[in-house]
Amino acid sequence: MSLIKKIAAGDVRALERLYEQLGTRVYRLAMSILGDTYGAEDIVQETFLRVQEKATAYKREESDAAWVFAIARNLAMDRIRKNARERLSCEEEFPETTESEKGYSDILFLDMISDLSGGEREVVSLRIVAELKWDEIGRILGIGAEAARKRYSRSLEKLRRKNFYEAR
């Protein structure tokens, strides 16, 4: 029985095990989308609350991990849209997270993918951070598995070209 089905049956230990398995990767995915440690931490909490709330509606069409990462991605994208609306309606700027508050590898990863478009960042994050398969990435992004693989390849080529020109 999958952990999600156990969670649906009320097994709190299954939720803890799922968190232990995926919590760090969910955080990294949220961080790669948001670029904000506090926001990423919130997304992790919201993701696992949502998993617990929606576990009874889970249909085993994809892996447990893909379902959890789809929830995390959607919550992070909702956060971005909400923040954009708030910035438009409010002139105040909130203080940014300092570099010392972020993990060094997270900073490097975010810096590396910063020149990619939103769709390119998503596919790279879902493949590298979430470690999802092409068909799972395709379902999350609403594209085919082959389209996801091609977008990923083009994104990596873009990063290679950038690094080549910066090294010269």
Present the secondary structure layout.
Elements: H1 3-8, H2 12-34, H3 37-54, H4 64-89, H5 104-113, H6 118-128, H7 134-141, H8 145-167
Tell me about this structure.
With 168 residues, the chain is mainly α. Helices cover 74% and strands 0% of the residues. It has helices spanning 3-8, 12-34, 37-54, 64-89, 104-113, 118-128, 134-141, 145-167. It is globular, with a radius of gyration of 17 Å.
User: How far is it from the N-terminal to the C-terminal residue, by CA?
Assistant: 54 Å
Radius of gyration: 17 Å
What string, H for helix and E for strand, traces the elements in order?
Answer: HHHHHHHH
Q: Average the pLDDT over all residues and give the rounded result.
A: 82
Q: What does the overall shape look like?
A: globular
Low-pLDDT regions: 87-102
Tell me the β content. Answer: under 5%
How many strand segments?
Answer: 0
Largest beta-sheet characterization: none
Helix content: over 70%
- Tally of DSSP helical segments: 8
Structural class: mainly alpha
Brief descriptors of the model:
mainly alpha, 168 residues, 74% helix, single chain, 8 helices
Question: Can you give me a brief rundown of this structure?
Answer:
This protein is 74% helix and 0% strand. The protein is built from eight helices and no strands.
